[in-house]
Structures are given as C-alpha cells and as structure tokens.
Amino acid sequence: MKSKMTLPLTRRKISGKSKTSPLTLRVAASILAFLFFVALFQPFFYRVDPAFSDLMLRLQGPSLSGAWLGTDALGQDVYSRVIAGFRWSLGIGTIGTLLGCFIGITLGVSAAWNRKRLRTILSRIIDIGISFPYLIIAVTIVTVVGRGFWPLALTLGLVCWPTIARVVYAETLTLREREYVTAARLFGIGSLRSIFTHIVPALRPTIQVVAAFTFAELLIAESGLSFLGLGAPLGTPTWGNMLNDSRTYMAEAPWMMFGPVTAIIITIFAANLLGEGLNARENARSGRVSQ
C-alpha cells in the first residue's frame, strides 16, 4: 500500500531509457496546451450552465440532440460539468506542482551545495519527507484545514516536494563538481551567484521532467481526495466529485462516470507522455545512458 502512495514514477522514469519520439512530445504538449485552453476559456465550451439542474431531465442518456454525455441524478449536464472540472483539476495540479518544485529545488540545491553539518541536516529532512506516504499526509492536512481549492492546492504542494528535492539533490551533487563551477568558486564568485548562474540553468531539463510527472500524480491525488469527499466542496463540478456521485447509478446510468474518467485518463496520459518525451530529449542531448 505504501509503495502506491509515494511518488515512485518520477525517479524511475527520469533515470530510465525512453524511446519517445519528438513527434510524440509535440503531440503531448499540444494536448496539454488545448486542455489548459479549455480550462481558461471554459464558458465557451459549455453546452449549458454546469450548475443548471432540471429534475425532469435526470438520468437521461447521451444524445447528439440533447445532453452529449447524458445527465446526472440532478438533471445536470455531464458534459458541461466535465468541462468545468478542467479548471479545478488543472489549476490545483499546476499550483501544487509549482509549490512542490519551489520547495524541492530550494532544499535539494541547499543540501547538495552546503557541506558537512547543514548538508546532513537537510538530507535527513528530505529522507524523512520521502518516508511518509504523501496521500496520508494530505488527507490529514485537508481534514484539519478544510476543503476548498486553495487548501487542497497548497496541501498537495506541501506534500509532493520530497521526491523533487531528492532528484534535485542528486543532480546538484554532480553539477557542483563540474569544472566551470569549481573555477567559479576559485575565482571568488559567491555561492548564490554560482547557484543561479550555473546550477539552476543546468537543472532546468531535469526539473521539467520532474514537474511533468509530479503534475500527473497530483491530478490523481486531487481526484482521489475529491472522490473521498476530502477535496472539493459537495456540488462543485470536479471529476472526483462526479465519480463519487456516479457510484450509486453505475448500473442505471453508467454514462455519468464515462466523462470524468475519460478526462482524467487523457490528462494524465498527456502529462506522463510529456515527461517521457522531455526525458528522452534530455538524454539525447546529453548523450547520457542511465543505468
């Protein structure tokens, strides 16, 4: 159980070989760009207002002349609610990933750059963070602070940083021994300047790969927490809430779960494919074959 709740994919996929083609990378980036476009301009994609409810239309099946993906138990349009869920899920995934990357990069670089006692302390903090299942921590925090967009986004950002920090730490240990970094230290260039001039730019490809996989995993976490009733407030059109609502009607109205499940699969698939493509491009550029 624990192995499923940590962030195992990031480190494994960053270091593994990938045969992803440049075309696949462009396709993945295009899909994600379109999904973010939908999230930003979602009112233009609505068929009807996602909050509109008509009990006379409840549990109607998909129809080209009516509700394209059917209606739910309250007579709400499933398609429009799936579209509304893009902004919630992609927004939380983006904010959580950015926060996790900020914390992970800060601690990872600091732990690798500093020597002796401070490095040991920061490394232990990272190890402790990795040792705890992040979903269990997220459930605990959300239970205390309450549900909502910002509590959930910040919570996921605060629990996803350990794996990012570990990857950044390992990469920075290698970078700090490069000749140009050593030369900069010998010429008296300060630590902060060396970090922002030499280390952070060199970390960019690795961070992009980590961010792509982290984003995909946070989407799963967000949907799971909402499904459990710990994410979005009840009634909010999110994919997790829609899946939770569809449980009672799986036999009677299976179309209620088709829309949100498809949206989750497409988004996570595109994010993971983007990470694979970025990893393959970086390996090709550096000529690095991972063990």
From TrEMBL:
Instruction: Report if keyword Ubl conjugation is assigned.
Output: no
Q: Which PROSITE patterns match?
A: ABC_TM1 (PS50928)
Transmembrane intervals: 21-46, 88-113, 125-143, 149-169, 209-235, 255-275
Q: Enumerate the UniProt keywords alphabetically.
A: Cell membrane, Membrane, Transmembrane, Transmembrane helix, Transport
Any one GO CC term of this protein is: plasma membrane
Q: Which Gene3D superfamilies match?
A: MetI-like (1.10.3720.10)
Q: Name one GO biological process term.
A: transmembrane transport
* Cellular localization per UniProt: Cell membrane
In the bilayer, the protein is annotated as: Multi-pass membrane protein
Residue ranges occupied by any ABC transmembrane type-1 domain in the UniProt entry:
86-275
PANTHER family assigned: D,D-DIPEPTIDE TRANSPORT SYSTEM PERMEASE PROTEIN DDPC-RELATED, OLIGOPEPTIDE TRANSPORT SYSTEM PERMEASE PROTEIN APPC
Q: What is this protein called?
A: ABC transmembrane type-1 domain-containing protein
Species of the source: freshwater metagenome
